[in-house]
Structures are given as C-alpha cells and as structure tokens.
Amino acid sequence: MTNSTTETLVGAAVLAITVGFIIYASQSVGLGATGDAKTVTASFRSVDGVIVGTDVRMAGVKIGSVTGIDLNPVTFRAETQFTIDDQLNIPDDSSAVISSEGLLGGTFVEIIPGASDFNIEDGGEFIDTQGAVSLISLLLKFVGGGGQ
User: Fold this and answer.
1) pTM to 2 decimal places
2) Residue 63 — pLDDT band, cuts 50, 70, 90?
C-alpha cells in the first residue's frame, strides 16, 4: 500500500465514524424519527430552565420533548407545546409540572397521571399545571422570615 492509499482509507474510516456518531446523537436527543407522537399544550406561570428539546417524563421515563414555548400576550403565561408518545393513554385530567432533578440538576416537564376515564387526545391541553419554583426566591423567603 502506498502512503496516499493509506491516507484515503483512514480518511474514509474517520468520515464513516463521524456520520455514524451524528446519526446516533440525533436519535439520542430526539431529532431522528421517533415513531408516532401526539402534540399537546400546557400553560405555565413560569418555565424557568425549560427550553425546546427539554424532556417530558412520566415516572422518571422520557415520554416526549418540548417542541415550542411562546408567551401569551393576553395572560402573560408561557404557552408550551410538546410531543408525547402516541401509544400512551394518559388521562385528560393529568397534571403537567415543571420539575428539577435536584439542586444543580436539569429541569424537565413531569406528567402526573390523573384518574379520568377519558384520555388526552392529539391537540389536547393539560389544564392542571404547576410552573417552575425559583430556588432563589425560596431562599430569600426563608432568610427574610417568609413575610412576603
């Protein structure tokens, strides 16, 4: 083998590995084809730490991703759109809560199942929501005696 042939083969191998890594990474973060999903919405008072691509979880298992966040100019609430696995039959009285993995952990949207006999449909909305809790404001209330 000549030197240029070796360089060409090594370059092709590096390129193949790079393409494989990009495909794997895009599927891991939900950018690839993930199967059927339904789009639902929820309105939150605060979505601190939530961005497009944030996980939507139920019982700690990822079931979807946040696909959009907009400010409603009338209610001044954060209107979020997210996709969830179409195979899940989530009761329509379920709650959507902004949760944290810990003091320094990431933020995610947690779905807490309700008890209704009817399931949320594609295009449905979670009515019962709880926004993000600011750790700084909690500490200020604690330090300040909770007077506010």
Assistant:
1) 0.68
2) very high
Residue with the two structure tokens 């007077």: 147
How far apart (Å, rounded) are the C-alpha atoms in residues 45 and 115? 24
How far is Cα of residue 87 from the mean position of the Cα atoms in its chain? 18
* In the predicted structure, residue 67 carries a pLDDT above the cut 90: yes
The DSSP annotation for 27-93 comes to HHTT-S----EEEEEEEES--TT--TT-EEEETTEEEEEEEEEEE-TTT--EEEEEEEETT---BTT
Q: CA angle at residue 104 from 100 to 107, to 5 degrees? A: 30
Question: Can you tell me whether residue 131 is helix, strand or coil?
Answer: coil
Distance, in Å, from the CA atom of 86 to the CA atom of 117, rounded to the nearest integer, reads: 17
Give the whole-angstrom CA distance, residue 79 versus residue 69: 6
Q: Write out the two tokens for 125.
A: 């909305």
Q: Name the region of 45 (left: φ>0; alpha: ψ -120 to 50; beta: rest).
A: alpha
Report the alpha-carbon distance of residue 22 to residue 39 in Å, rounded.
26
Give the H or E element holding residue 95: strand 95-100
**Stronger pLDDT, 141 or 9, i.e. the higher one:** 9
